[in-house]
Amino acid sequence: MAFLGLIKRVTRISRNNSRVRVYPARYLQRMDLSNTNSFHGEDAKLPVLIVGAGPVGLVLSILLTKLGVKCAVLDKATSFSKHPQAHFINNRSMEIFRKLDGLAEEIERSQPPVDLWRKFIYCTSLSGSTLGTVDHMQPQDFEKVVSPASVAHYSQYKLTSLMLKRLEDLGFHVSSSKESDSLALDSVVARQILMGHECVGIDANKESVTAAVSFLKGGKHMKRNIQCSILVGADGAGSAVRRLTEIEMRGERDLQKLISVHFMSRELGEYLINSRPGMLFFIFNTGGIGVLVAHDLLQGEFVLQIPYYPPQQSLSDFSPEMCKKLIFNLVGHELSDLDVADIKPWVMHAEVAEKFMCCENRVMLAGDATHRFPPAGGFGMNTGIQDAHNLAWKIAALLQGSANSSILNTYETERRPIALFNTSLSIQNFRAAMSVPSALGLDPTVANSVHRFINNTVGSMLPTGLQKAILDNVFALGRAQLSESLLNESNPLGYQRLGRLKSIFEGGKSLQLQFPAEDLGFRYLEGAIVSDNESEVGDSEVPSGRRRDYVPCAEPGSRLPHMYVRILSDSTREVVSTLDLVSIEKVEFLLIISPLQESYELARATFKVAKENKANVKVCVVWPSSRDDGVARESKSALAPWENYVDVMEVKKQSGEEASWWSICKMSERGSILVRPDQHIAWRVKSAVTLDPTLHMRDVFSIILGKQ
Fold first, then answer.
1. Distance (Å, rounded) from C-alpha 686 to C-alpha 669?
2. Considering the domain boundaries, does residue 26 fall inside one?
3. Has residue 212 been placed in a domain?
4. In this structure, are residues 688 and 598 in contact, taking their beta carbons and an 8 Å threshold?
5. pLDDT tens, 201-225?
6. Is residue 97 packed enough to be buried (19+ CB in 10 Å), middle (13-18) or exposed (0-12)?
7. 112 in Cβ contact with 296 (< 8 Å)
8. Which residue among 272, 556, 630, 704 is the one 20 to 30 A from 307 at the CA level?
9. 675 with 552, same domain?
10. Is 306 part of a structural domain of the chain?
11. Strand order from edge to edge, sheet including 249-264
12. pTM for this prediction
């Protein structure tokens, strides 16, 4: 009920913030939203401009291009970052990647073996004693029963490189600011990725959006205008689009400041492979505290996260030499091949944008531009990728004329509650991570309280050197709790603390990696869906930070359950996931039925209504898995004259398995399911449609496509 109440509050907030503000203030006339043609008229030079060439922006550009929508991407960076950044890819994102020309399969082939990253290790140093180990993989994670894809561990810059390959195959060209010299300042830039181009202004009118873009030419700052129908800001946590449109973030700021040290050492990678392989190493000793992310043990690529307390500490305090000394201390010995590649500060927030779109739905935000999470659980990039998946088909349906402009409202209606829920979940997971140092006698809130006292009270009047000395002494006093003389089972206090630590690990109360129930089971309660009276009332559980298993669900707004089926309509009789039946090459709905007369009647009505709405629909007829009974499993005559259908048969993974498709969906075989292009269920009926099927499906498509 808590999650439902949260969503109702979000809906009220969304409605209260429906007033549109335009930036700069040259928008003289509010656009009539009923005039859908203004979104795909000839006046707009470019249908969609994406600001930000990170994973979210690149995924959105791939999806839009595959759906037939021209777009371009720009990024203020002159080159793509080699800093590993995000690295955990959850089930749902991998399912989306399966549709992107084998991207998921290439990630699975290229990532380190799972046995090298399945564990989190807590220790006094990488060569010292182990305080605890948590294995985050369970047998069902590899069985592909609830999903055709497994989670992955793959650095963001490597993922970006694979996405760029796919964009190049789609005809995109990566252009530097130098190469843009040859482009006319008002030229169409479709299928271009413009690096070194910064969005510095946004001007909307009733026909289009114009982005003012700054770039260097011959050492001088130049500007050009790019006109588009829709502008999407996928430009990260410090989003320029969000700043230009004055959209505020809401939530908890400055949870923690850290220094991120990217370094290479094959020597360390080989040592850990042979001694204690893992993904994350939480290291606590009297000389320092840090979290080591092993991005690739085989290549010896790591990122060390160190607590950072400015202004008493500055970035200059973390020189490459100082970082090497700290790494040697946390490793427990020196490394002959240590190479510090990059050192950068960052701030952990837990915030969600007050709204996801503005300028009469012509400007919208996605990814970190709309939500900033603690990294615990890897929700940041994954939530952003799912933002793009939700948004792409809606933009395509609008621009291609099958949906009204109000369909874009459903992007915020659906995705903002998910962002709020994932924020709460990541905060809970972050607090679970903090329970480990607390059990060791290191209360993280003490250091933060002292730091705030120095910065915000009379401490700020003390000389800078004295402020730093006070902080250093507080940290040293805290780290003294980690001395070997204290932290051992012979010491009564140490015995108590180690016992508390063991209880945390065995009870699953430490930092978690996987959240199957949330990764696969998130559900839209309002939006481009048709709710039914038989749906359950949302998720009653408040985020706890603990792993929960996913239970398949076929309620409107849920992701379509996965089951393997055999295609009967072609000679190959290929086995695919039900998720694979949803097209990515066009905006196409999927109607899933049984081979019953009343279901065929509904299918023919759905074809007719889809054609009236200029929409595409495919019908999937699910035949039960059974012995050869002489019945021809073919639907051609039953669906004539309509031809866009596929006959499939259930595939039982294990002998004796009784679960059928309809039992997984908790429906009878007389039911039907309409699936959206993003693999979420738009509508279902658990038994037969009792009304005129044509009239009923007209109502259904009217709601989904925003034509009600």
1. 8
2. no
3. yes
4. yes
5. 999 887 899 999 999 988 888 999 9
6. buried
7. yes
8. 272
9. yes
10. yes
11. 130-135, 119-123, 280-285, 288-296, 301-307, 249-264, 339-353, 371-372
12. 0.91
